[in-house]
Design goal:
Rossmann fold, 8-stranded mixed sheet, 386 residues, 2 domains, 6-stranded parallel sheet, alpha/beta
Length: 386
Amino acid sequence: MRTHGLRIVRLANFVAPASGGLRTALRELGRGYRAAGHDPVLIVPGDRHTDRDMGQGRVITLPGPLLPGTGGYRVLMDRHRVARLLTELAPDRLEVSDRTTLRWTGRWARRARVPAVMVSHETADGVLRTWGVPETAARRAADALNARTAHAYARVVCTTEFAAREFVRIGARNLVRAPLGVDLAERHPALRDPGLRARYARPEQVLLLTCTRLSVEKRPGTALDTLEVLRVRGVPAVLVVAGDGPLRPRLEQRARERGLPVAFLGHVRDRAALGALQATADVCLAPGPAETFGLAALEAMACGTPVVVSASSALPEVIGSAGATAADRGASFADGVAALLAQPEAARRAAARARAERFGWTAAVEAFLTAHDAAAFPSPAPTGVS
């Protein structure tokens, strides 16, 4: 009988220093695996080789080139080096978070007889559509990609029913549902800060916040559209944008030209500062149409702040009746903001928090470990920092 845990090696691309949701998920799952007695190892691209022991387990960065126009994303391109490292690590389980450039690891795992799972963090057809690919062509390309992915891995993990649909559509039989979560102790309504609010908005103004990567697939321009529509309607709204990316210069120029009151903060590295922003806003906006879970939106709700989300994404499934759903245009998002503001403040904030409390990381970790056929084992308290 096994008396120790499994070595779970995780591979991920597109984890930039200024990325949010994926980095958070990787960190929290690693912490959970370690607390359950397993040995998590994370391999991600960086500007140089590093190897550190952290609260989430061992984290190895391998040099990877920058992708032009992505605002900092890097990828693991040296397959031979990655394969050598995987062989050295001798994983009991493999977990991959990129079904494009890392799908080859499914073949490596099969040859090494290592059970492997692919985590679907986005809908392939949804991302293609945000880049302007016609719907029929996007669906055809996504189906081909997903069929190859489902064949290459023992299991495909999807975080919502929304994310699972494109695999159900192709008849994949190895599909597993495992939700993500939110740190309910780190994110809570008590973080609300009147002094912080006064920095960005006057008492009579509506403080909007969007926490997102400023890239095409996230559709951050919808947040500016929403602000402009609200102000035309006479709503004294202001907007804070927490996030960075290749579209930032264009968005800043538009805000200047239109005279829109927008504060661009860039990537907010301080988790406590970001939590205070999320708790202090009146309404958060999550305009990304291809989101398959939306951790930033869930964090805002844990802070007691309701969210208006894209009807094209998985977020309506996540927020339930505690937020508002909108079509992918500013006028519809403005309608959602108005609907939330029409509710008593205490009631809408309590509903947001209550909904978030359904998504703790403990349940998420258990679901992912089940996907790995990995039981929990007693382990000493983790060392290191996250």
